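Inputs:
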Amino acid sequence: MTADGWAEGIFAILLFSQSVDAGRILSPEAGYVMLLLFGVAWIGLGIWWGRRATSYDGFAVAGRNVGLALGTATAVATWVTSNTTMLAPQFALQLGIWGALAYSTASFGLFAFAPLSGRIRRLMPHGYTAVEFVRRRYGRLGSIPFLIISLFYAMTWLISMAMAGGKLLNALSGIPYEVGMTVVLAVCVLYTLFGGMYAVIGTDFVQSIIILIGLVVVAIAVLLHVDIADVHQQLQDDRPMLLSILFPAALMALFNNMLFGFGEIFHSNVWWSRAFAMREGVGPKAYLLGGLLWLPVPIVAGFLGLAAPALGIGVSQPDTVGPLVAATLLGTGGALLVFVVVFCSLASSIDSLLAATSDLVVNDIAEPLAKRISGTPATDPVKRRWSLFAIIGLGVVTWCVAYPNIGTLATVLFFAGPMVGSCIWPIVGGLYFRRSSPIAACMAMVVGTSIGLVAYFMIGWFVASLVGAATSGLVFFIGMYLYPDDFDFRSLSHLPGPPLAARPEDGPIDPSERIGMVGDISSGGETR
Amino acid sequence: MWMLGQFNTRRTRRTRRTRRGDRALTCPLLRRAVAAAVLLIGSSMMVWGSVAMAAEPESESPPALAFVETQLGVSREGYFTLEWSAVEGAALYRVRDRADQIAYQGVATKSFQSGLSDGVYRFYVEAIGDDGEILATSAEAVATVEHWRLAPSLALFAIGAIVVGGIGFVILRGRWIEKQIATGGDDRTSMLQTEVESGGES
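Outputs:
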């Protein structure tokens, strides 16, 4: 078959094949072809970009030389997850207009992280992970709960992404959940394995462009097909609470989601590893631009959820409403577009998580353990090899948990809400206050998580992060007041090793030797 | 989720009940008595069942269609999922509310309802065949919507605003101080600042 004939054949399968199942927009054959095309493309691009990852620094943090364009693109692509394209419409369908707005407030996390990323890069020029910062800032007392939270969150996010892949492919084309989930995960594992952070950021660039173009096309097409006045009238008649300003659960969800976004970004190594990977001075601009580009995405996606009842589209599972509405309105072309956008958003998040979480496993679990056993730090090639094992291991664990397809996406993801919410203050305080102490950070994370989880079960997911963040903030400031520390920020700029305060020969840090960092400004006779 | 919490509570109660039952059966005499009773009741039911089946005339009964849960309890967020059994030969399912309005139409055996105000909602589902005939109709499922009270919701909204404001304040203040230090400030801070802020090892 000639190239033209082959292309025609593919096109015919995609556009004209009839769906076997009356409920699907694409046929399974079309789904398999798309999977194959994009799978091969991502693996190929990953290998091509990853050829520069010869050292561990290259593999883990892309040589610490990522510029503004790639930095912005990777922030957008990573933050436009399948949860954005699937959960934002679900939020709108569950909580109405407030729900769509609540989801879009997650961009505030990127805005808030912009200045933090600059400070992180300056304080830790040789750093690799968020857990490393917490370990060196708060010692073991702070790093153990933080590592547990980080791993739990990373795995939850990874699993929810893999599940989203399986569900979406099934909803759109009827490909069995198990097959779709396995293929999406395997493709991401393969190209991350070959190229590390270089491959992740390179593919993110292409994926972010595809995602943004796709969403603009979907938004325009949906607006052409849907009369907003009709949607409003239909919602007013049948689902009035979706338009209500005083929708109690939605009111609670607004700041909850914003704080969830803060917690996710502030604590997650996905964002820290990018802060380390970007050139000095690039991080703040990249995160700010990324947030601005991301802001309208959940609003567009959320509108799809609100349009569903008005269009008479039967929704059986709320987390698939967005893709279903777009595909139903725009026909086969829309289904293909949605397929591509969601496949890109899935891949961009899964690869980031695999790379960032493998850094955690190597730098914060394997290396300290090996050092304790053998007494010598691991060499670059050894760490590079451990990364490969870590990525494969993470892929296998994710597959095993995602396979049974338990729970809705929101349930799985929001279980981590109180945990990440309780990390906000220990991170912000740890970066800006010299007095932030290990006991304050540890108590803030433990108490914030516990009370947040109680709120999760007693009230609902829509207050868990809020309660976690508020409680941990209170505990953190009380702890800092009762057990103040006197941290020397210089210790963070050293090459990774044991914290200065942990070495007895260094003795206590002399307050008069402290450097002029943020947090050293006297305020009311007290240094904060 | 609240619904999840409710489900878990129910499951825990059931588990506790089962465990109490397990303890009661640890007595050997009681266990034998229960086994004998089960055997007796079981055999008599089998005999009765076979007689009844033999007596029943052969007839085509409509396929069973029923909601998985007919009492959905109270939803505090105004949304819930209706789920029903599949019917062989059904091309689609149609869920109707008390006013006979269509609340869902599709191939799945689930329907997500949301945005409802306070009140009691009743639904039934119809299985529709290929040529549009109704194959089966279910009994009613009842859901109650009772939203959270507004005062505590607004209080949590305010707490959220305070926390977010606090985080923003700390970051902006930190950034402002960093800039002050970078642009000069006092001699001591600017000298030391250069050493650390550049990331140089001291």
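Remarks. Chain B has a mean pLDDT of 73. Chain B touches chain A through 68 residues (CB under 8 Å).
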